[in-house]
Design a protein that fits this description.
The chain is of the alpha/beta class. It has helices at 13-27, 73-92, 101-109, 131-135, 194-203, 215-224, 231-241, and strands spanning 4-8, 34-38, 54-57, 96-99, 113-115, 120-129, 145-152, 155-158, 164-168, 176-179, 183-186. α1 (13-27) runs antiparallel to α5 and α5 (194-203) runs antiparallel to α6. It is globular and about 45 Å long. The termini are close together. Residues 46-192 form the Glutamine amidotransferase domain.
Length: 244
Amino acid sequence: MLPFLLLATRAEDDAAMGEYRAFLNFAGLTPSDLRRIRVEEAPLPHIRLEEYSGIFLGGSPFNSSDPEESKSPTQHRVERELGELLDRVIEADFPFLGACYGVGTLGRRQEAVIDRTFAEPIGSAEISVNDDGARDPLLAGLPPSFEAFVGHKEACSTLPAGAVLLASSSSCPVQMFRVKQNLYATQFHPELDVEGLVERIRIYRHAGYFPPDQADAVIARARAAKVSWPQQILRNFVLRYARD
């Protein structure tokens, strides 16, 4: 099987490794099946799409909607390099699944409106699958509604032209969409289970997602959630796109 590629942008080693392990585990891949590039560490090398089955983009501390003057040189570089790769991915309709940060990156590349209107605090959200989502192979086997973990400062308030909305929540209308036939973005995190989220809460305690002194309460709410379905999306992606 040609490997999949995980593009990561988390500067914290513990968070980056936790994310990698989660994608391996829930996508059902081995380390030889999932290559990882930490884009925040060094310039993104040229990616030959024909060498991969598909691309995952993990979450990020970066926000596409941040004012340009507030972005660090690293964020500017990452956005430029990911954007150039996404242009090729979109043109080829190459299998792509972006988790959380994928909404901002893929959405903005397709002229969606990405802003702070539908930000969600860290925790679980009830995701509702619409008719188009029920017919989409990435959501095959999932129920019409399910809990998923979220936590984001920006979201898509206007879909890209031609994009297909697949799932929503009451607090965030765009939770999952598809561009063309093979390009996907989720606002929720399909790679997270409870322990994965707890680890991130501890790592990002001072990142502005919640008051630091409320971390224990945020963890308690996360542990009370029943999140088991979203990981099926990663397995479905691999089953659909794995190729020799």
